[in-house]
Amino acid sequence: PLDGMNREMLNEDDVVPMTKAEMKAAEKDIAMTNDEVHANTPSSSTVQPSYRLHGDKRQIVRPANSDGDDNLSNQSRATSLLLFSNDRIKVSDFRLGPSQTAKCKHDYPTVRWQVAYDGVASQHNVKITNTADAVDVKDAPPSGIVVDRQAYSVDEGTTWEITNTSKETDYRQIVFELLSNKPKYTEKEVQDMFAMAKYSTDVGTELVFENELCRCWDFYLDPSEGGGVDTVHHHCLDYVFINVAPSRLLGLHPETLSLEVDGLLFDSVSEDNQVTWNSIPRDAGTDIAFAHGGKNGYDDRPMREYLIELK
Q1: pTM of the model
Q2: 63, 68, 90, 242: which is deepest, by most CB within 10 A?
Q3: What are phi and psi of 283, to 5 degrees?
């Protein structure tokens, strides 16, 4: 039950790194809370929910006022990992173990993007409040099944209380915080930039969400899929993408689409949770250096990216 649980809601500035001793102990039982609660990769060798560390690159955090003591209810715990941050966007991996609940305050316009494990759908219950007047928001996501690659746009100043209602499966979202509520370009400027492009400006396989701040693309290729003209696209806006599974993308010259040395622009092998940022000049549409085709370089697994263009 949700009533009577001990919950904490912290801003990112309220958290501090754990000591090495605490990090060791955390490998056995990790689920600490912070604002956008930052998670590590599930360990295949332990019963979920448990998480493993990835060297010094992945920090576990704890409440700054906890003095190292874990006084949170097991069911109020969540984990989150800040993967990338610059002056325009922050990217985090958020996870809840089975039957866990977390409260997340959104200080910026945010996109929360679902990731399912091995095609197994997630299950959740979400209660949303507007922190300005503390009333329930009417358009809360429905309770129940959450499909892979489903995305939610969240207004700044909104709080989500999320419960993973599955008793067996971890709950995972990639969280994109847009650090300005105003776009860099007007909508007319964006359309003018797209109009200059020689190739398609559809930079993914499916446009999942769009508003005045961003365009959110799912980029998914089945094993060995791609390499044709339908994969050629032109980047005209700054963008960030995250691989949500180990992936290999072959970038092909837009005119030759050749896998030979003269046509292969890049061979990008990425791990799960690897984030890439690209700054794109305003006149990129006139330069085919910002265009390429794509092919999945693996023949035994899909290529998976979540990509956001910032307007």
Answers
A1: 0.75
A2: 242
A3: -100, 25
